[in-house]
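User: I'll paste a sequence; please echo it back and then give the predicted structure.

Assistant: Echoing your sequence first, then the prediction.
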Amino acid sequence: MRMVKRMAIAGIALATALTLLPAGAGAATPAKIKVGFMFGMTGAASPIGPVQLDGAKLAVKEINAAGGVMIDGKKVPVEFVVRDDESKPDIAIRRFRELLTEEKVNVIVGQTFAPISGALNKEVKKTPVLYFPVNVVALKMFEKAEMAPSTFAPHGSAYAAGYAGAGYIIKNLGYKKIVFFGPAYAFGQDQWAGAKDAMKKYGVTAEYIESPVGTSDFTPYLTKVAEMKPDIVMLAHWGVDAINVLKQSYEIGLKKKTKIWFNWMTNIFGTGVPADALDGVYSLMSWYYDMAGFKDAAVVKTANDFTQKFRKEYGYPPDPYSAMAYTGTMEALRGIALAQSTDPAAVAAALMKSPRFDTMKGPATWRADHQPTFKYGAFVVLGKGAKERKDPKWDLVKIVDVYSGEDYLPPLSALGY
């Protein structure tokens, strides 16, 4: 009995001592860090998924070129595996579970469609893992009751695009007769929520038109927009829908009847339509590879350096979504280095303790809701026509302004913090 008591006391003492050790202490240094990359490589999100993957892979290549992630004084290499979520939540959940149980990944970086990020965030709450959705996610996911402790979403929500777009249109362009045309899913509806808040702030109202999920012919809606004779129309579509709505706007001559503002532009959308379809179209972009003429020389240099590395690796310029996939992967691995551990809770705590990080769009800081504020929230761009382009395929837009400040993000109090 005395021996049993002594063993029990010793066990309690050891357990107590282990709880006092820093995260990762007492555990063997891992032989490798394994990352799961999962994007919409096929399906409705497929125009964007491949360029996201390229950005994420470049981050891993750079980390490994420097020897790996430093843990316990040793450089640990990073390995990745790739899965296609096929732009479908049920498939994404199945692949998520495969990555954890079969591939034994430490980190998951990915997603191209907001509903999939939301579904996987719920899985992370049940089965903790470090998760970085690098697409624009649904606003609701940032609510305190919804956000998983180890989920970090560097690209924020579509609310910001709607808010910043409407705010800029009213304050800077002076337009007040606005039609908002968006899709009947979270990406468009969150933009509308942001736009409404900005309009309320500035005393403006707008007409709202919504296209059902699965719409491929947008001409009846665009014809209705033309008949309403607005000063400007805000287009809020995504993926294949974005390319179709831009093409069809051009084909029916909508630009001749109203100004067009495309809420959230990417290189992939821009190259998917005729050059003159973008001519004179205003847009917001989270980032653009050609920052020539931008007021912040440090950001221009950082952007150029990243663009050169990316072009050398892949032969084309990085999309904004390539840049955010790169950033998200880098932040996940920075968190592991800070925590000296792959434990999701330890990494999350380490990132929030050291929340500032640098990006190709300026310094950023993680908020309590696990989305970052950037020095430059979004860039206002104007589309170039065929005659203005130096490169007929990739010289898509020019930066004309920037939307900065935290007001385009919903206040933390509104999200339950």
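The chain has 13 helices and 16 strands. The chain has a mean pLDDT of 92.
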